[in-house]
Amino acid sequence: MKVMTDEIIALYMKDVDRTLLRENLKLTPTQRFEQLMEMQRFAEELQRAGREARKRREESHAAQ
Question: How many folded domains does the chain comprise?
Fold first, then answer.
């Protein structure tokens, strides 16, 4: 079982960006949390912009 688990982990590890992990671990927990919150705000802004774009598109199609 351990050999199989190690093989599976090895498959996943080839796709892991270890430099990114190392850079994140250099940050304090507070800095990592702030980075996470900033990413969350960005995701929310993308969602808002997408809703707004769909609404404008629907309004322009309805006006035709």
Answer: 1
